[in-house]
Design brief:
The protein has 77 residues and is α+β, with helices and mostly antiparallel strands. It is 30% helix and 26% strand. A five-stranded mixed sheet has the order 2-1-5-3-4. A hairpin with a 2-residue loop joins strand 3 and strand 4 (54-55). The mean pLDDT is 94.
Length: 77
């Protein structure tokens, strides 16, 4: 199962810091996250989503050893 890690507002909207998911592709994962966590789904298009530390497209295959990081846009000051 793929490990998904949420940061900042993504963690708040998902209600957890990490979880295990079994989606086959990044696109499928994005769709199920948006359905499972509507508040996260609202910001997900603006989030950086990294697979094993790299930006990836929705066709990227996820495996048992994959780590997906969901990083919302950050405001600085």
């Amino acid at each position: 199962m793929t490990q998904v890690r949420y940061f900042a507002a993504a963690e708040e909207f998902a209600g957890r810091a990490t979880e295990q998911r079994d989606d086959a592709t990044l696109g499928a994962l994005r769709r199920t996250l948006a359905a499972d966590y509507p508040a996260l789904g609202a910001i997900l298009p603006r989030c950086a989503v990294l697979v094993d530390g790299r930006r990836s497209d929705d066709e990227t295959t996820l495996g048992a050893a994959s780590v997906v990081d969901v990083l919302p846009p950050f405001a600085g000051g």
